[in-house]
Amino acid sequence: SAVISQKPSRDICQRGTSLTIQCQVDSQVTMMFWYRQQPGQSLTLIATANQGSEATYESGFVIDKFPISRPNLTFSTLTVSNMSPEDSSIYLCSVGRTGAYNEQFFGPGTRLTVL
Amino acid sequence: GESVGLHLPTLSVQEGDNSIINCAYSNSASDYFIWYKQESGKGPQFIIDIRSNMDKRQGQRVTVLLNKTVKHLSLQIAATQPGDSAVYFCAETSGSRLTFGEGTQLTVNP
Known about the structure:
The complex is a heterodimer. Chain A is mainly beta. Chain A contains no helices and eleven strands. In chain A, a hairpin with a 5-residue loop joins strand 5 (43-50) and strand 6 (56-57). Chain A is globular, with a radius of gyration of 13 Å. The N and C termini of chain A lie far apart (36 Å). By secondary structure, chain B is an all-beta fold. Chain B contains no helices and nine strands. Chain B has strands at 10-14, 19-24, 32-38, 45-51, 56-58, 62-67, 72-77, 86-94, 97-109. In chain B, the strands form two sheets. In chain B, strands 1-9-8-3-4 form a five-stranded mixed sheet, with no helix packed on it. A four-stranded antiparallel sheet of chain B has the order 2-7-6-5, with no helix packed on it. The N and C termini of chain B lie far apart (39 Å). Chain A binds chain B through residues 1, 4, 33, 38-45, 48, 58, 85-86, 88, 92, 94, 101-109, and chain B through 1, 3, 5-8, 31-32, 34, 36, 41-46, 49, 89, 93, 95-103.
């Protein structure tokens, strides 16, 4: 399994600002995913980040709010834009292989609090 | 404003007992079913998965059972240990996404 790190591990931000979360993997991976986990709840997929193409967003999530970059096979960023308290969540990246969506490995998460 | 989180279903067991965590699903077209363990402050950790054409799979101290007739998935943990205390999520894949179910908070009492 891949070793995945996220930065920052946690942050407290003011309403209306933006935060960029980084996800770094120790090996090249084809698929990277971003999830949101609201307090006390399960994980919800935000988008799939593919290297060399635009991210694919799930229903309810838009690029203007959650822009994603995937410049190479080991790195991705998720930006939470124009934040509000409702964006307070844990944001997690995961990695996997094309066609093997059952074999995803997750980073430690970024705990975001918006005041 | 104040945010209110949902209360997860909970399961409390004595150390050494067997634990059974259940999950219902609705998508008949799922390819795989997966169990994840999430400890406090960490990301989910893969435990075991089962393909949709199987009904049982065993790992080290864990067994997953799949009942497609009633769309039910269970995770059995043998000889539960304090280190097993965590939130357990079931998940399923269909197409190109992994969809998580509701979690269960497992507490192991010494």
